[in-house]
Specification:
The protein is of the alpha+beta class and 183 residues long. Helix content is 34%, strand content 19%. It has a domain at 22-147: Gyrase A, domain 2 (2-Layer Sandwich), CATH 3.30.1360. It has six helices and six strands. A hairpin with an 8-residue loop joins strand 3 (65-70) and strand 4 (79-87).
Length: 183
């Protein structure tokens, strides 16, 4: 009987040409908590299995990561998104860059190949600690100061849509109110 060890895990260049060199931050909503408390980082990966491999690599390698997950379905181009959630805190820029440097070993890419995109901005920046610190709110107060929290009525007002928080009184709405017992 042979005594072969089975090694499962990613090795250098296993994800070469499969992870797009773009780091997106705060483009998506957090599922773990409030957006002002949680940073959501996303990567675009070609194929479900490589995306799942990246999720496993991240979840097993970084105790500061709250959650990592693959998008439920593929994008229009057949790629998948990998979401990584972590606490919004001052040292997260260094943590993200350390993680990205580890990912570079799997992708055979250089940091200079990568671009940084924040929230819904269309501009891309080089990935660096300085750019992350300058562009990403690193605590809840800074997030709220930059982006605030708006109610649906405030968003409607800003968009020039009439605000109608109360249903009009007509036969239909009155019958609904009656059925709900709020007349």
């Amino acid at each position: 009987m042979s005594n072969n060890n089975i090694f499962e895990g990613l090795e250098k260049n296993d994800l070469a040409r499969l992870v797009h060199p773009e780091l997106h931050i705060d483009e998506y909503k957090s599922k773990m908590g409030k957006d002002e408390d949680i940073i959501v980082v996303s990567f675009k990966v070609t194929g479900r299995e490589p995306a799942e491999d990246l999720v496993n690599f991240i979840e097993k390698g970084y105790d500061w990561v709250l959650d990592a997950d693959v998008s439920a379905g593929e994008m229009d181009d057949g790629d998948f998104l990998v979401f990584v959630e972590c606490d919004r805190e001052p040292d997260v820029a260094k943590k993200l860059l350390d993680m990205l440097n580890d990912i570079l070993n799997l992708t055979d890419q250089k940091l200079s190949d990568w671009k940084l995109r924040i929230r819904s901005s269309s501009s891309e920046l080089p990935v660096s600690i300085e750019n992350i610190v300058a562009q990403v709110p690193l605590n809840s107060a800074d997030y709220l100061r930059r982006y605030g929290t708006k109610s649906i009525d405030e968003m409607r007002n800003a968009a020039g849509i009439p605000v109608t928080t109360k249903a009009p009184k007509n036969d239909h709405t009155q019958s609904i109110r009656s059925l709900a017992g709020i007349l």
